[in-house]
């Protein structure tokens, strides 16, 4: 049994605002994602320095150009009426912020149950961009991969 920790109790006022901002950026990208619009993540993920792990792919994506190809293949195909971002948490480094959460959504292609990790870094112009993203299945032994439809 896990204990829920009030990690926000140790945030400074500035960290509270930044956590809300970063969670808002992610929710904005997810809102578009579930309407078939990949532009939210295309813009949020760093063009300068980016890597990505996805549970459905054996290798790490090494750059934004490769993820662009993946996003092009998904654009307009994935839809859901709603999603749930559970227990988002932001942890801070000097010039980085780590957002973790669980994502649940029943889409037209797959029932999504993911542990999501987004490592943000402040880039030029003080814009926060994701430099690493990981989407891994929650309890993959419970997943029915036979019912997933081919996305790309």
Explain this structure.
By secondary structure, this protein is α+β, with helices and mostly antiparallel strands. It has a single domain (12-140), classed as Nuclear Transport Factor 2, Chain: A, CATH 3.10.450. 25% of the residues lie in helices and 30% in strands. The protein has helices spanning 13-33, 39-44, 64-74; strands at 51-54, 84-92, 96-106, 111-122, 128-137. Strands 1-5-4-3-2 form a 5-stranded mixed beta sheet, covered by helices on one side. The protein is globular. The termini are far apart. The relative contact order is 0.18.
Keywords, separated by commas or semicolons:
152 residues; Nuclear Transport Factor 2, Chain: A; 3 helices; alpha+beta; 30% strand; 5 strands
CATH topology assignment: Nuclear Transport Factor 2, Chain: A
Count the DSSP helices. 3
The biggest beta sheet reads: 5 strands, mixed
Going across the biggest sheet, name each strand in turn.
1-5-4-3-2
**From the 3D coordinates, which CATH architecture would you assign?**
Roll
Please give a quick description of this structure.
The protein is an alpha+beta fold and 152 residues long. It has helices at residues 13-33, 39-44, 64-74; strands at residues 51-54, 84-92, 96-106, 111-122, 128-137.
């Amino acid at each position: 049994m896990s204990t829920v920790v009030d990690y926000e109790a140790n945030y400074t006022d500035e960290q509270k605002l930044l956590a809300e901002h970063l969670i808002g950026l992610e929710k904005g990208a997810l809102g578009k994602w579930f309407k078939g619009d990949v532009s939210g993540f295309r813009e949020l993920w760093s063009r300068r320095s980016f890597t990505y792990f996805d549970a459905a792919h054996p290798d790490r994506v090494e750059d934004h150009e490769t993820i662009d190809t993946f996003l092009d293949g998904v654009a307009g195909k994935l839809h859901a009426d709603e999603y749930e971002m559970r227990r988002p948490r932001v942890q801070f480094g000097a010039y980085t912020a780590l957002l973790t959460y669980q994502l649940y959504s029943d889409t037209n292609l797959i029932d999504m149950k993911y542990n999501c990790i987004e490592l943000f870094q402040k880039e030029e112009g003080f814009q926060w961009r994701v430099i690493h993203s990981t989407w891994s299945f929650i309890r993959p032994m419970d997943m029915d991969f036979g019912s997933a439809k081919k996305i790309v």
